[in-house]
Amino acid sequence: MKDSDVKRSAEHPEADLKHLVGGIVRKGLRPVPPKASISLRLDADVVRWFKAQGPGYQTRMNAVLRAFRDASLQEPLRPV
Length: 80
Fold this sequence. Notes:
Elements: H1 17-26, H2 44-52, H3 57-74
């Protein structure tokens, strides 16, 4: 279905196809936890590599950090 195929009316002008699809896709999934905004210094080559992978590089960085955290939880805690 194309965006032009969607019938909009004066009664529902705020209906946006992307908004509707997002709601359908999220239905039944766990709520997305809020994100914390931080300032973080990273090596420039690391940032370039993530950005070169395309849009969503910050989400991928988060996934890598989460995977590291989850893997670390499997091992006994070591003193720092």
